[in-house]
Specification:
By secondary structure, this protein is α/β, with parallel strands linked by helices. The protein has 6 helices and 3 strands, in the order βαβαβαααα. The termini are close together. The model has no long low-confidence stretch (mean pLDDT 92).
Length: 137
């Protein structure tokens, strides 16, 4: 049975990349026994981890950086026929009203700044890519 490690967010990327590096140095390491997936909005962390050598292969990385949370929220709020995922998103999202705008209106490529409510929009936006990645391994 394969052991699967998922690095979610900046700290998750760093932790799983470090674990992957340590495992691969073990003389008994068998790549068929492990799988790794890395998910983040911030390409800076990905690039920093890979600065000396490729620790996180591009094929194992799900980049959620292009996510624009406010645009996704507005699209869900104004949907004519919301699906179950859209309804769920609106259940946990903080209502965005004039004078109370908490979601960024720009891509998350500089990171979600460890704000769970913001990072969830990346997961919502890229859930199909994540599902493909997770089931492929």
């Amino acid at each position: 049975m394969k052991t699967y490690f998922i690095g979610l967010g900046g700290c998750g990327l760093q932790t799983v990349a470090s674990l992957s590096t340590r495992l691969k140095k073990d003389p008994n390491y068998n790549p068929d026994d492990y799988a790794f997936t890395y998910v983040d909005t911030d390409m800076f962390t990905y690039s920093r981890i890979n600065s000396d050598s490729i620790v996180i292969p591009a094929a194992d990385f799900v980049d959620m950086g292009p996510t624009v949370p406010l645009a996704i929220y507005n699209g869900a709020k104004n949907a004519d026929r919301p699906n179950a995922n859209t309804k769920r998103l609106l259940e946990w999202a903080i209502s965005q009203e004039p004078g109370h705008m908490t979601l960024p209106n720009h891509p998350l490529s500089d990171g979600a700044t460890a704000q769970r409510n913001v990072g969830r929009f990346g997961i919502y936006n890229y859930y199909e890519a994540m599902e493909r990645e997770l089931t492929a391994k």
